[in-house]
Write a structure and sequence with these properties.
- With 334 residues, the protein is mostly helical.
- The protein is built from 15 helices and two strands.
- It starts with a helix and ends with a helix.
């Protein structure tokens, strides 16, 4: 009877007693840790986005009257030559992101195994990612300037300065030069992510593959690639998203001149120089939709690619099991 009475007491506690109890404190801590981040996220992300989405339907400046124009701002995004040209310029950065990922995956595959001086090399390759983007812009602005660092190194290699292009003025080469800056900065980050994923693969798989006579390329194709497919998908999504959102290199190095203005550079000029806030907001929404569509297509593509690889592995395993069963049957028949 006493035990039943003691068990019923917690149910009869007042709200104040429950708040001061251990269970009440746990609930308060959980609510605080949930409400505060959600409140900050809503205040600084979702609310500004909703405001920007509303601005995209108006012809307006930061200060002054607003005029509702409906979908006209979205139509202008595809009618303006500067906006559409900036979207096409993103293909340069997408191509650079492919080079960046291939280079990062190649070096990560090598450095994931025991290589003399590998730790130092990893640090050197990752260091550019730690430098501020504005600082990198100023570094490469002087690096590519006529007669400065890059031209001097090429002259040491035997090239004539008069035969070298203007790396930041020649429209045949300037965007490739800027893409090279982005590749140099970000491939170290991709490499470190790949290394972490590759080192998590069970070493016994490599030993088994070597016993089966698999070479390094076959180990990479059938062990490493399927094992790190999540990180590969993540890096591709981050790289493509970054290529569509490129801003710092063209803004700092060339200020968007000579056909180097990316989508973000043009959007920044329209918003802050021309004071067309509604049009800039519409450009931001269009870019968000493009990134969203690109992300879905990438996930579907990699899902199909890795599914095909998994099916191929299952078929190979089934064929091997059949051969082993036949061999065992022959031995048993003897």
């Amino acid at each position: 009877m006493t035990a039943m009475t003691q068990g019923a007491k917690p149910a009869g506690r007042t709200f104040g007693e429950w708040i001061r109890s251990r269970d009440g404190q746990k609930v308060l801590v959980m609510i605080a840790f949930m409400v505060i981040p959600l409140g900050l996220l809503f205040t600084f992300t979702y609310l500004p986005f909703a405001e920007m989405f509303g601005f995209s339907f108006y012809d307006m400046k930061y200060i002054g009257a607003r005029k509702f124009v409906g979908m006209k701002n979205y139509i202008k995004v595809f009618q303006r030559d500067d906006c559409f040209r900036a979207l096409k310029l993103s293909f340069y950065y997408m191509g650079g992101s492919v080079v960046q990922l291939v280079l990062a995956l190649y070096l990560a595959t090598i450095l994931s195994f025991k290589v003399k001086g590998g730790s130092i090399f990893k640090g050197f390759m990752f260091f550019p990612y730690l430098i501020n983007g504005i600082a990198i812009g100023f570094i490469f602005k002087f690096f590519y300037t006529r007669g400065f660092v890059f031209d001097t190194v090429l002259q040491w290699c035997g090239f004539n300065l008069d035969h070298l292009p203007y790396w930041l003025r020649d429209q045949r080469i300037n965007n490739i030069s800027l893409v090279g800056t982005s590749v140099w900065r970000y491939f170290g980050q991709n490499m470190v992510l790949f290394i972490g994923a590759i080192m998590s693969v069970d070493s016994e798989l490599y030993e088994a593959a070597m016993l089966d006579g698999a070479n390094r390329f076959q180990q990479f194709k059938y062990i490493i690639m399927p094992s790190i497919k999540t990180i590969i998908t993540l890096n591709v999504i981050l790289s493509i998203t970054g290529s569509l959102s490129a801003f710092e290199p063209p803004y700092v190095i060339t200020d968007g001149a000579n056909g180097t203005g990316t989508y973000f550079v043009v959007m920044n000029e329209i918003a802050h120089t021309q004071q067309k806030v509604g049009l800039a907001s519409a450009m931001a929404i269009v870019l968000l939709l493009i990134i969203f569509a690109a992300t879905i297509l990438q996930k579907l593509f990699f899902k199909y690619v890795f599914k095909s690889a998994d099916d191929e592995d299952l078929n190979a395993t089934a064929r091997r099991d059949k051969k082993l069963a036949k061999l065992a049957a022959r031995k048993a028949g003897r």
